[in-house]
Amino acid sequence: MVFRRGKDGGDDPGGGSGKRIILWPAYFDSTLPRRLGRRVPRDMGVPSPRPEDVAEAARRAGFEAVVEESSYPRLW
């Protein structure tokens, strides 16, 4: 899953610096231990988040979200 800052937020998706932020749903999965990829505190995560849910949250935060079909390297 790739996120780029929206048009109002700085990085221009059509050019500019081309910075990307990659967020894997595993980062927010409260059922995973940190050693397998969870990056948020367990009480702030959700069990088994879907890529579409993470993308929607990113859009609400002002990012342009693109869901790509790929597997998290630690849990392929």
Structural class: alpha+beta
Cα separation of the termini:
15 Å
Rg to the nearest angstrom? 13 Å
**SSE succession:** EEHE
Categorize the overall geometry. Answer: globular
Query: Mean of residue pLDDT?
Result: 82
Number of strands: 3
In short:
By secondary structure, the chain is an alpha+beta fold.
Describe the structure.
With 76 residues, the chain is α+β, with helices and mostly antiparallel strands. The chain is 13% helix and 13% strand. The protein has one helix spanning 51-60; strands at residues 2-5, 21-22, 63-66. A three-stranded antiparallel sheet has the order 2-1-3. The radius of gyration is 13 Å and the shape is globular.
Give the helix/strand layout.
Elements: E1 2-5, E2 21-22, H1 51-60, E3 63-66
Antiparallel strand pairs: 1-2, 1-3
Keywords:
1 helix; three-stranded antiparallel β-sheet
